Amino acid sequence: MNGRWRAFLRLFAVQGAWNYERMLGVGMGYAAEPLLEDLGNADPARHAEAVVRSAEFFNCHPYLAGLALGATVRAEYDLVPGQQIIRLRTALCSPLGALGDQLFWSGVLPALIAAALIAVCFGAGTWVVVAFLLLYNLVRIATGAWSLRTGLAAGASVGQEISRSWLPKAARWIGPAAGFLVGLAIPLVGAWSLQWARDAQVAVAGAVALLGVVLSFRFRYTMTSVRFALGAIALAVVWRWTA
Fold this sequence. Notes:
This protein is an all-alpha fold. It is about 75% helix and about 0% strand. The protein contains 11 helices and no strands.
């Protein structure tokens, strides 16, 4: 199967043709085209059907789209019935969307932003912005490469492969980690901007950070790091106005 690198690069633009009718479907079809070239030489009729299926409705987190892309392409080469492939695509939408949101939007992204803010409070220069961008994009690229590789290897059994992988565990633990870092960053930034003593900054930050961890474990599916951050900021504003 050729075209893996081209498909991988095209996945970075999977949202480029996003629309309400097919969501990521057109982008998925564009990314699938290089992977389906060999099928066109071996079975033109199957190739034509596969191209149409690859561009039908699909929606999930864009960073994990490679899992669905690789799995459905492998299923096409394995001559899995077309209706079964469509059901596979449909079944992958919700779990890949939820896992991706939990891992990136409620985990990795707020955790790295909070870490960058903490570094600034302790004297880091502008290099911390470069470090944040590099680290976040390295995680994103590595996850995308793993997703496509895993999907192509697993095919129709990709669901079982996902459940055995690092992905669910990482999504489960990144939330409390992000809650801790966000809880640490908010009071540190506030105290740093008010020029409090360093001991007071660390004490207040530690207390809020521990609260973030406790709430993340107690309300795992409702208290995300983003919600905790917004709540902490709101309480800080109220306290500042009433103090």
